[in-house]
Amino acid sequence: MTIFRADLLKGKRILVTGGGTGLGREIAGEYAKLGAEVYICGRRGAVVAETARELAETHNTRVTPIECDIRSPDAVENMMTRVFNEGPLTGLVNNAAGNFISRTKDLSPNGFNAIAPGLFPTKGAGERLNPGSIRATTMDKAHDSSAINNPMGRVGRMQELRNLATFLMADGCDYLTGETIVIDGGAFLGGGGGTFWQLSHLGDQDWENIRNTIKGANEKDKAKRTA
Predict the structure, then answer these.
(1) Where are the alpha helices (DSSP H) in the chain?
(2) Gap between the terminal Cα atoms of the chain
């Protein structure tokens, strides 16, 4: 559910890169819904234009599409000149990304991303990062092997991502800057600090077996002690 008042972002002008599809579209749509004037950019001009039209009609606000490849410094400079000729921006979401799998040593300078969401199913992610894995018909119900291994046992819901993006863009949060906020259902903490959360899947008999194993190990250890 949304947790913000309907006019929270009224008067703000926000640029969302990669705003034509996927997570960028979700974020741009939420900003438009909450009253912001939104700019979205992407490499596919027709896609960005169609998204802008749909969001503007749905939310009755101005959404401006810009065709831009952010890997090109000149293209970025031209885009920003165009935007600022109409007035200053109050917010920027560096969302544009290329979905691919690669060894670190094979990455070029163009391979970098700027946000830290966990598994939020999109068409692009499913096709390029884990092909054929996402099988459900709606994003809220989407699941795959990654969800099974998540401490919360599910994938992210788009409204959860939209709420976080809105919080970071709203007034009253200006002093929070230069941080990476992970929204992944605890996957990073679960993997980074061990995998003990997976023990939550065990049943009574499993725990009984574990206790017996630990007891046996303790008894063997005691038998070897000399003090």
Answers:
(1) 22-33, 45-59, 73-85, 123-128, 145-148, 158-169, 187-192, 204-223
(2) 61
Burial call 39-56: b when 16+ CB within 10 Å, e when fewer? bbbbbeeebbbebbeebb
Domains of the chain plus CATH, in order, are 13-192 (3.40.50.720)
pTM of the model as a whole: 0.69
Q: Using alpha carbons only, what angle is made at residue 28 by residues 122 and 92, rounded to the nearest 5 degrees?
A: 115
Q: What secondary structure letter does DSSP report for 155? A: P
Closest CA to 70 of 37, 93, 52: 93
What does the block give as tokens for 164?
């976080």
**Residue range 93-148, pLDDT digits in tens:** 988 876 555 566 666 655 557 567 777 877 655 554 554 454 444 444 444 555 66
